[in-house]
Design brief:
Elements (H helix, E strand, L loop, with lengths): L3 H8 L12 E7 L4 E9 L5 E9 L2 H14 L4 H5 L3 H7 L8 H21 L24
Antiparallel strand pairs: 1-2, 2-3
Helix pairs in contact: 1-2, 2-4, 2-5, 4-5
This protein binds FE2/S2 (inorganic) cluster (FES).
The site of FE2/S2 (inorganic) cluster (FES) has 10 residues, from helix 2 and helix 5.
């Protein structure tokens, strides 16, 4: 049911933890399943993501997608990180079962929330970034859980 990569990132998640004085922190949840993901980004003066860490209280797919999302954003510019969609995260994990697609949305939105926080703290506007939602189930109301 799960790919080897999903299982690997679930069993051995990368970048678990917090970043003290992070440039941006984003927390998103899903009221339907009760899962919560918090993403920390350390961004240098050139807008490049030096470090990414996460804490996820959620299902295995949520853990695996947060782990992969942190791996994907590291070394990227803010603008590049914005382009990392939940589909990209899923592809990097060799797919997710259809019923678990919403878990990857949590990862995408957590990145956006952390970028939003960074932009607010630095009084900048990130082109193309929309205000993230706190509850991802607002974005995927039709999904089953
Ligand atoms: Fe809620 Fe996976 S994020 S079931």
């Amino acid at each position: 049911m799960y790919s080897e990569k999903v299982m690997d990132h679930f069993m051995h998640p990368r970048n678990v933890g917090e970043i003290e004085d992070a440039s941006g922190v984003g927390t998103v949840g899903n009221a339907k399943c009760g899962d919560i993901m918090r993403m920390y980004l350390d961004i240098d003066e050139n807008g490049v993501i030096r470090e990414a860490k996460f804490k996820t209280f959620g299902c295995g797919a949520a853990v695996a997608t947060s782990s992969m999302a942190t791996e994907l954003v590291k070394g990227k510019t803010v603008q590049e990180a914005l382009e990392i969609t939940n589909k990209a995260v899923m592809e990097a994990l060799d797919g997710l079962p259809p019923i678990k697609v919403h878990c990857s949305l949590l990862a995408e939105e957590a990145i956006h929330a952390a970028l939003w926080d960074y932009a607010e703290k630095h009084h900048i506007k990130i082109e193309g970034l929309e205000r993230p939602v706190n509850d991802i189930s607002e974005k995927a109301p039709e999904e089953e859980y």
